[in-house]
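Note on ligand handling. Small-molecule inputs were canonicalized before submission; formal charges were left as drawn, and no protonation-state enumeration was performed. Where a ligand contained multiple stereocentres, the stereochemistry in the source SMILES was retained. For pyridoxal-5'-phosphate, this procedure yielded the string shown in the input block below.
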Amino acid sequence: MGTDIDLTGDGVDIGDGEQPARAVRRDEAVRAAVEQGLLGPGHPIVGLLDVTGIRESAAELRAAFDAVTAPGTPVLHAFAVKATPLVPVLRLLREAGIGAEVASPGELALARAAGLRPEMTVLDSPAKTPAELREALALGIAVNADNPQELDRIDALMLPHGPKGVGGTPMATSRSPIGIRVNPQVGGGSIGATSTATATSKFGVALRDEGAREWIVRAYADRPWLTRLHAHTGSQGIPLSLMAQGAAETYALAEEINRSLGRRQIDTVDIGGGLPVNFGSDATAPTYAQYARLLSEAVPGLFDGRYGLVTEFGRSLLAKHGTVVARVEYAKSAGRRAIAVTHAGVQVATRTVYVPGSWPLRIAAYDAKGRPKEGPEVVQDIAGPACFSGDLLAEGRALPLLEQGDYAAALDTGAYYFAHHYAYNSLARPGIYGFAPSDGRGDGGGGGVAFATVRTPQTLDEIVAESGGAHASGLTTL
Ligand SMILES: *Cc1c(COP(=O)(O)O)cnc(C)c1O
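Structure output:
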C-alpha cells in the first residue's frame, strides 16, 4: 500500500519490503468480517482488534525488560487503560501478565471488571477526590500522588487515628504502595497536547521549580510509607532520548532521596509509558527491545536490581492491532476531487479529524467483498458521516479509487481511536470485535478467521437513554 506519511517516532529505521504478518492477518479479517456479516450495508462500521498481535506485543514488552533487568527484579507492566478502555482487552492483557494503570473511577471500575488484582493496578490522575483515594487505599492499589495537596489527603487517610476508612474502621495503614509523581521538566516533543514534561505541564511536582527538590526529599523523610517515585515524560511525539532523560532524572532523584535518608526507602521507580508508535507503515518502530536497551544504557543503576520497576505503556501495546473499517456509502466528486463518503469520521477518529497534521492515519482500500482493492491510485478525500466539512479521515490521499459499496479502513487505530467514541451527531458507537485464526492458520480468504464480541454496537434506544430520554418533559415543567 503506497503511503508517504512521515510519523515514525524518533527517526528509527522502520525498514520495509515484505508484507508483515499483521497486514496479512488484517486483510483476512476484513474479508471475513464481510463474509460473516459483521460488516455490510446494515452494519457499515466496525472496529477490529488483532488478538494475535496484542498477545505478541505483550510478550515483546515483558521480554524486552526481562532482558535488561537483573534476575529477580520485580517488574510490573501496567497498561494505561485510557489507551483502550475495553474490559475484554484488559482481561486479555491480564492473561498475558500485564496489569492496569487507571486514572479515573471509571477506569478503575473497568480494571476491576476485568479481574485485575490490586497488586497489578496503579492509580494516577491529576484530580483524585478524597473518596477515590480512600477506595484505592482500602483496596491496596498503588497510588502516585500528583501534588502536595493530594499528599495531605493521603496523610489524613494513613493516620492511625485519622479519618475512617471504608466500612468505618480506622485505617492504620494501607497495603498500597504510594509514590509521588514528579515532572522532570525535560521539555516537550512534537505534539504539545501529549507532552507532559514541559516547564508548565499540569502533571506532578515540577522538579526544577524553586524549592521543589527540597520539599520532595522532606516529604519522603516524613513519611516512611512513601516508597515509590513516578514520572511519565510524555506520549506520542516525544523523542526516545527525551524519555530516557526523564527516566534518568527520576532515577537520580530516587538516589538522592535514599542517600539523604540513609536508607533505601524508595524501592520502586515508575517510569510511565509513552513509547511512540509508527503510524507510517506496518512496522513496529521503535520496539520495546530498542527502548529497554536504550534505557539500560542511559540509566544502568535503574536496572541493577536495587529498584523494582513499573511501566505504563498504552499506545504502543494496542495501536497497531486495531482497524476501523467503514463502508463507502457514496462516492462522489466535487471540484474535480474524488470523495468517498464513509461511516468513519470524527466519532471514531477525533484527534485525526480535528488535528490532522499531528495524527495522520494510513487508509487501506478494500472492495465490496472485503478484498484489498487494486487499480491505479487516485487522489481522493476519505470523508466521515458527520455534518461539518472538516470531517475527513484523510484529505488528498492517493489510493485505488473507492467506489460505492467498497470499504475504507483506518489503520493503527487500536489505541485512542475507535474505543474513544465522540458522540457528535449522535452517531452510534460501533461494534468492536476481536479476531484470531480459527484453525491456527488463515486460508488466505475469510474462512479461517474467528471473531469474538468486544463491545456490541450502540443501539438507538441507548442513544436516546444517554441523551436524557427518561427526562423528555423535564424542561417544559420548570
Ligand atoms: C497516558 C499515560 C500513559 C500512557 O501513555 P502512552 O503514550 O499511551 O504509552 C502512561 N502514564 C500516564 C500517567 C499517562 O497519563
